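Before the break, one more example. Copy the sequence into your notebook; we will annotate it together after we see the structure.
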Amino acid sequence: MRKISLMLLALLVLVVWVGGSQDNSVLNDLTAQIDALQNEVQLLQANLDSLGQLNLTIDTLNGQIGVLQDRIDGLGDLKARVGFLDSQVKVQANQDSLNDLRAEIDLLNNQLKVLVLQVSPNKITLGNDGAEMVLIPAGPFEMGDHFNEGTVWERPVHAVILDQFYMDATEVTVGRFRKFVNQSGYVYPGNWKNVAQYSPTDDHPMIYVTWWDAMAYATWAGKRLPTEAEWEYAARGGLVGKRYPWGDEIDKTKAHYDSWNDGKGTTKAVSSYAGNGYGLYDMVGNVWEWCLDGFDGHYYSRSPEKNPLAGHVSIEELIKGYKGIGTDRMLRGGAWYGGTGYLRVSARNHDRPRPWDSFGFRCVADVN
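Here is what the structure looks like once it is written out:
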């Protein structure tokens, strides 16, 4: 710009000098040249101004590009995070699907067991008492209160695996227990009149038996009492996580309970109601059933998975010394005059090895 101004100044001087010595034509040419140069100067100045605006625009755009790049980088991080979360969701979905599949497989396996039992000769007569027994298949199940309705003794729900075993199809009847007394010479400490008050025929369940009476009968018959785990597994009849042996809803046509009316009422003859999935009758209602286990309110939290037994090293050790045991024993199944709470297959009861008008039992036998 400085060079152009000097040139214009020189031209002006030249014009002045020529004006004194040259004619108008020369002056006109010089004036035209000056005008042209001025136009070029103005055009150049305009271009320079435009260049400044362009620089400002470029600076603004660079700033915007920087912001956009930051956002793009943030978007990349966000995409990576979304990808990670999506993979986690897929893993969880796969795990949930796997758990659902496992539950479905367990249900189908139990249904298969029931079907096999229904079409195969799974019933047999064993022992001195001549009672019909049902083969209970080996397998796993979830033991305990799935509905959080019972006492803390019924929790936590825990996995148990059992060997196969035979179980009496019905509770031991008055007639079978009388046969035991007559054939073995066992001195029954109870009162037969009391028995007849609530179990009036030989086909009604034996009551007023102590745990020792039940153990003596089982030993004579060549059998034993069930463990709690065996009892609950059998009572479920192949159903998974249900409240009762037949499902989740109470049904007066499925069991004998709540029959105490103004001080009157009795047990029912065994197998008066339909059997469960394994073909076992009166697993809930009618009479409480003695089990081998001692009472331990915290046992479920440390129970072994395989063939658990509370309070004793082994079944053999317990049976060998049962006459010297005086601690509380477990009872299962509810009773003829009781309410619905004890009809739940997970419900646990315990008492001293004493007789009562609702205490009875059934036997099991090992498969060997």
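The chain has two domains: 1-120, 122-366. Residues 2-23 have pLDDT under 50 and may be disordered. Try to locate both features in your own notes.
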